[in-house]
Design goal:
Elements: H1 3-24, H2 30-46, H3 50-57
Helix pairs in contact: 1-2, 1-3
């Protein structure tokens, strides 16, 4: 799995988790969903992605694929 795929999977997991928490706990959890969405949009325009930077620092190879 490449870093791009990991970022997309991570964003999807956080969105689903925050939607579940909004349903079960408090609608305030939708702010987390909005934060992830804003990060995805700004990343599309700027190329800056905090999660990708973190993954690179922990040693994930950008083109690495797990089969």
């Amino acid at each position: 799995m490449s870093i791009d795929q990991m970022v997309l999977a991570g964003a999807g997991i956080v969105v689903l988790l925050s939607a579940l928490l909004a349903w079960l706990v408090s609608p305030a959890w939708l702010l987390l969903t909005a934060f992830v969405g804003i990060n995805l949009v700004q990343s599309a325009f700027t190329g800056f992605c905090p999660l990708a930077i973190i993954l690179k620092k922990v040693g994930v190879n950008p083109g690495q694929a797990f089969s």
